[in-house]
Write a structure and sequence with these properties.
The chain is built from 7 helices and 12 strands. By secondary structure, it is an alpha/beta fold. Helix 2 packs parallel to helix 7. The radius of gyration is 20 Å and the shape is elongated.
Length: 242
Amino acid sequence: MPRFYVSQPLAIGQLVDLPEAVAHHVQVLRLGRGDLVTLFNGDGGEYTASLGEIGRRSASADIKAHVAREAELPFAITLAQALPEGSKMDWIIEKAIELGVSGFQPLAAQRCVVKLSAERAEKKLDHWRGIIVAAAEQSGRNRLAQLAPPQDYKQWITQQDLHRRIILTPRAEHSLASWARHQAPQAVTLVVGPEGGLSEQEEALALRHGALPLAMGPRILRTETAALMAVSVLSAAWGGLA
């Protein structure tokens, strides 16, 4: 059943005017009046709805039922990702949503090639929000991950965080996998450097502010690989794959 995100209150018996982007997707999929679709608004659960009138740029849906289904991890993972080159961030966000990440913090680190002006950062945020929505629709998640504005790494790492911060570094003595096996499931923030990794000064600053250094094994991983492998390791250790 096709799934669509609708950013408005939903209730059984309600006739919903679907957003123009969703109406366009309905037409692309060649859906017709009476076809069933799934709608969700990020507040939890999902709704089964029957399509009504479909115009060139509009469509409506009659909500029939609510299903209290969730596909979230039993623990929260925030991914603090230093900005990589090109479209890698798009790919990281898409796949991290599929794996269950609940928050993203883009970071401008010392070795980042990408530099975002305020205007460019706002455009990127809009683009990344679209990726989050599309990935949630595809993966069956009914809640949208939080996306924070890009921050300078040195400013962000010195701020207080309610979650345990884990900095992924090949210089660490212990691995994420071995640490996770001896820990109860908990909310964590994974800090991942850009191409070339975080500098020694950046790592030292993170350690001074309480971050836990952990390695991803004997191989050096690309930035886009490290983030997703780390999420997978935690899911395997703490029951996020069941």
